[in-house]
Write a structure and sequence with these properties.
- It comes from Streptomyces fildesensis.
- The structure is a single chain.
- The chain is of the alpha/beta class.
- The chain has a single domain, classed as NAD(P)-binding Rossmann-like Domain (Rossmann fold, 3-Layer(aba) Sandwich).
- 44% of the residues lie in helices and 15% in strands.
- The chain contains ten helices and eight strands.
- Strands 3-2-1-4-5-6-7-8 form an eight-stranded mixed beta sheet, with helices on both faces.
């Protein structure tokens, strides 16, 4: 049968931040962590949806401790405000889950191409700003949610914001490769300093969430939206099943630094297992270059 949410170790006394936790995989991950005793911070862009999700979680798991805190990953000012307002001296788990997929070309509040800005730069800045608390917490972890679709495109270090040419799916693949390259470089730096902090990545396979339809809805592409809905129903596994690789990477005792966890069956569905990843996501030189560029673009310098 494989690993399930019932195998999550006791999380009592631990604090977790889950981005994009108002729906889909993020909500399911937050709920299971809270069910196991963690204090979970639902970091979401919409105050209305985020607070509603926290209320729903507590209604579904009455013993849960879950709070909403606003975070807009497309606005570095919001990212800084979140880190400054985050209460407590410890942070056991940061789940970089929020993301956007295959959107028409738009820019974040800071002028970055939205998929790169939200999926990578926002989480890069958030992790760096919360790093002191993560390093101060024994056994802490950072888990970034990538995608099997990272395989369609490597990061273009000469055109990070897709200024020369924008293709929505290529931009998405690049942002998901950036997630993996970020975790690779973070794990490498943590190992060099001997830190008690594990950086790992996960992907959900094909899970039925609203991510697949968001881009088509934005542009009013009804046919594309219908295709995505049908694909979700026929191929997709549930959001709860899609959250299992993230939960495994976040809590299982045998997760090594720079692991990439995904569904067992063809990377699409099934119990969590070690996942294939493109060779370019483990390129040390590319990781260093993306890291340097990300610090310059966000203004966030990591203090190890």
């Amino acid at each position: 049968m494989g690993w399930t949410a019932n195998d999550i170790p006791d999380q009592t006394g631990r604090t977790a931040v889950v981005t994009g936790a108002n729906s889909g995989i993020g909500y399911c991950a937050a709920k299971e962590l809270a069910r196991r005793g963690a204090l979970v911070v639902l970091a979401c862009r919409s105050e209305e949806r985020g607070q509603a999700a926290a209320d729903r979680l507590v209604a579904e798991v009455p013993e849960a401790r879950a709070v909403f805190q606003r975070l807009d990953l497309g606005d570095l000012g919001s990212v800084r405000a979140f880190a400054e307002e985050f209460a407590g001296d410890r942070l056991d788990l940061l789940v970089n889950n929020a993301g956007v997929m295959a959107l028409p070309y738009t820019q974040t509040a800071d002028g970055f191409e939205t998929q790169f800005g939200v999926n990578h730069l926002g989480h890069f800045a958030l992790t760096g700003l919360l790093l002191p608390k993560l390093l101060a917490t024994p056994g802490a972890r950072v888990v970034s949610v990538s995608s099997g679709m990272h395989a369609i495109a490597n990061v273009d270090l000469g055109d990070l914001n897709s200024e020369r040419r924008y293709r929505r799916w290529i931009a998405y693949g690049r942002s998901k490769s950036a997630n993996l390259l970020f975790i690779h470089e973070l794990a490498r730096q943590l190992e060099t300093m001997g830190a008690d902090l594990v950086a790992a990545a996960a992907h959900p396979g094909y899970a039925e969430t609203n991510l697949q339809t968001a881009g088509a809805k934005m542009e009013g592409r009804k046919a594309a939206e219908r295709v995505a809905v049908v694909g979700n129903r026929i191929i997709g596994q549930s959001a709860a099943a899609g959250a299992l690789p993230t939960l495994y990477a976040a809590t299982a005792p045998d997760v090594a630094p720079d692991s990439f966890i995904g569904p067992r069956f063809l990377g699409w569905r099934g119990a969590p297992n070690r996942s294939w990843r493109a060779s370019w996501t483990k390129d040390d030189r590319a990781g260093e270059m993306l890291w340097t560029a990300s610090e310059q673009l966000t203004g966030v310098t990591y203090k190890f």
